[in-house]
Please model this.
Amino acid sequence: MTHTFRTLIAAASIALLASCASTGENTSTDGTQTTDPAAQTQPGAQPGQEAYSYSYGQAPDSYEGYDTAGGGTGGGAGGRQGGGQYGQAGRAGQYGQGTAGGGAAVSADRVVYFDFDSAEILPQSQSVIDTNARYLSGNPRIITQLEGHTDERGSREYNIALGERRANAVRQVMIARGVSPQQVRVISYGEERPAAGGQDEQSYALNRRVEIVY
Amino acid sequence: MNWVGKIAAWVVLLLGFNLAHAQITLDITKGASGAGIPITIAPFGGTSEDIAGIIASDLKRTGKIAPQPPQSQADYAVTGQVRSGGRGAIVQFQLTGVQGGKLLDLSFDVPSEQLRPVAHRISDLIYEKLTGEKGLAGTRIAFVAGGGGTWFLVVADADGQNPRVILRSGQPIMSPAWSPDGSRLAYVSFEGRRPQIVVQDVYNGARRVVSAAPGINGAPSWSPDGRRLAVTLSKDGNPEIYAMDAAGGSPVRLTNGGAIDTEAVWLPDGSIVFTSDRGGSPQLYRIGSGGGGAQRLTFEGDYNARPAVSPDGRYIAMVHRRNGRFHIAVLDLQNRQFRVLTPGGLYESPSFAPNGKMVIYSNGQRLEAVSVDGGVKQDFALRGSVREPVWAPYGR
Model:
């Protein structure tokens, strides 16, 4: 059922891209624009770095592992190009597949789900976390980003905090399994990037998650 | 073209597609029904702009004044005309009582493309004359639109017309907050795939990243004098409230503990109200301007979050949950009366109008506004996903 749904969504997103191509619209490659181009400033000096500069503790020795896994766009404007693709993948509900490249696991094995208003790791999530923890501790140069998400209920900034709490809960388990803290970064998107768009319990359950992104 | 180039081209086309089809329009579908002061508004001659229609729409939306068909009996009548001259157009109008007395008789000399703002100004003058309250027709709102690939930060007139996209981004935009003078917006942007707090001048577009610490950079709120921001940062391991200079600089921590502390707003006296789950569930607490002991403010229901303060500091609007449904509720700090303003659902993000009489919010799909006494409701119909409305102060 889930697989069929994802296939449909993938087909729909390809159709969307095709229709985009036919419009011939052209804009800047820049993902962020103010209405006054003269006044526009981009935070972060190095576009290749800015997407990955979030870290607990000190920065890792190399961004290489994460960079290539993030879509292979490399340096230069790669961060922003990856960002645009990432947004599209998020809408299609297969965001993990679109962005994650490292590791041998498939995307279903990189999502940890949660109960409402809870950051407690459920028993059924242990194997997903353990598998990824084993991969990380065996590949100490690989960096992962844990992306915390919530369903849409409640206030948005509180949900940002809740998403971070979920991602940190997964991070703590990974560290307890021997993963170096510097291999595991955390970001929360709260309710801003749902995996499923419905306003029903089934969609909410899919949205309360932490994605393990390589 | 190599495959990296192809991805870049797709991104270009995708962004163009989304911008072209975003259709950020915001229409008022219904004003408050029922009673109101009856008034007639005759068509303004000398222009193709429907000034009388704009005034009627503005007044109807207040719920306190009821525009009537032109030939009806009414307590008050508005007449006016436009002629060319001066800086472009001279707009003259009169408000007359049924007894025949002229209550207002004014003229405006404006550039000819400024007729819509003049119509809003006339609406506010009439509203203030008849009710004694300051009007909202000439004010603005900001909100976030889009999602799923492209996000927009938009500023529009309070009737939803004249929307201007002041930021377009391939990453989420959140939590816009107006500076007290109405010239700047602080907001959260995930550009570069990390959250940061940005302050942007809405007139010239100049923007500055004021916080990009490790972890959460969220929930900006302006101090009453517009010189400082309260923000949520998790750089020290846990979401806490900090105060910092609005131009950037070192944040000073105001809360401590293992709980989530976020969504701070300043009261006119300098104290701060915020959301915390230190008691188990999210509730609102109040601290002094320098931090210190927190006083719990909310006890109704099982979830109270995202406070907004009325301009006079008397009321706190919030997201409130009871029986599993989310509402907008208002707490009166003077008499501790707690009032639920909505039927329940996915309501969020309340913001007070600058006259303190209305609260605008999202119902999970669209924007609505309701009077603090619950008696007047406005719907904003729109296409696409629109949320996090914030009503601009009167400002300059």
